[in-house]
Write a structure and sequence with these properties.
By secondary structure, the chain is of the alpha/beta class. It is built from 10 helices and 13 strands.
């Protein structure tokens, strides 16, 4: 008989509760975010909400994030092993964080203490609502009856098919985080450029296009979906937004008009990725061939 296993992820995996209705429970490890000078915890049991975070950003505060402490990983993983459950941890992409490395070291340490158990860490190569998308689909596969080893294989085969196309409304936070230069930020703001970024095959954030104005930016996202969407993998679509629900609803409606049989969820982009992208970010996530 196969041991049961628990899917665990981190607070970067942005989802809404409706996405997991009827599926096995997914554990979420909270993460740290510093806003202005003050440190907060985001995620289950945390002390800052998405709304409070974006209100502070709009107020002119900049945010930074910190990696999960190894003791937190050990606590979460060990609690499962003590119950006789194995662990599958789907982690924020290594392209933007060293989290995967830390988690893997903790897993190796526990493997010695619990030789009969398994703690498998997978670099999702995804972020924010893209990571949430992959976690949700993994939970769907767990419900279908995949064993831990089968699900590990499935995630490794599918993680690079999660397409992230997102536009950023302001250059301020990208500039503050060192992702664009001051000169590029100034020029982009003057020209009303809404840079479209994507998560590359290596899990890094890259600029793909520089559409001018919000309408063109939205059209550019839809064009990417038309080009590469693979509904045979699944009809799930997630629209993520950084405190701009109206634009998220507009994008979701346009997708629904083009593809009526999709399963669309709108999810807020939390502080972990929002720290780098700021308010007004709009993301479109789907299964596709063109990442």
């Amino acid at each position: 008989m196969h041991r049961t296993y628990q899917i665990i992820t981190d607070a970067t995996a942005d989802m809404v509760p409706e996405m997991l209705v009827g599926l096995p429970e997914v554990q979420v490890i909270p993460m740290g975010v510093t806003l202005g000078e003050k440190a907060y915890t985001y995620g289950p049991g945390g002390d800052i909400t998405v709304e409070e975070f974006y209100a502070a950003q709009r107020d002119g505060k900049f945010a930074t994030t910190s990696q999960i402490n190894p003791t937190v990983y050990l606590e979460h993983f060990e609690a499962c092993l003590q119950k006789g459950e194995d662990v599958l941890y789907l982690c924020l992409t290594s392209g933007v964080s060293g989290t995967f490395q830390t988690a893997s070291l903790c897993a190796a340490e526990l493997q010695e203490k619990y030789p009969e158990g398994k703690v498998i860490c997978i670099d999702s190569l995804c972020a924010s609502v893209g990571e949430g998308f992959l976690v949700r689909e993994a939970a769907r596969k767990q419900k279908e009856g995949l064993t831990l080893d089968e699900l590990v294989q499935w995630v490794n085969d599918h993680r690079q098919k999660v397409c992230h196309w997102f536009t950023v409304d302001t250059f301020e936070h990208l500039k503050h985080g060192g992702r664009v230069s001051g000169a590029a930020a100034m020029m982009g703001t003057l020209l009303q450029i809404k840079p479209m970024l994507h998560v590359s095959m290596e899990g890094k954030l890259d600029v793909a296009e520089k559409p001018r104005g919000a309408k063109r930016a939205l059209a550019a996202q839809l064009a990417r979906m038309k080009k590469g969407w693979t509904p045979e993998e699944g009809k799930l679509i997630v629209v993520g937004h950084g405190d701009c629900i109206d634009r998220a609803q507009e994008l979701a409606e346009q997708v629904k008009t083009l593809y009526p049989d999709t399963e669309i969820y709108i999810a807020p982009i939390g502080p972990i990725i929002g720290s780098h992208t700021g308010p007004g970010m709009l993301a479109l996530i789907f299964w596709g061939t063109e990442r």
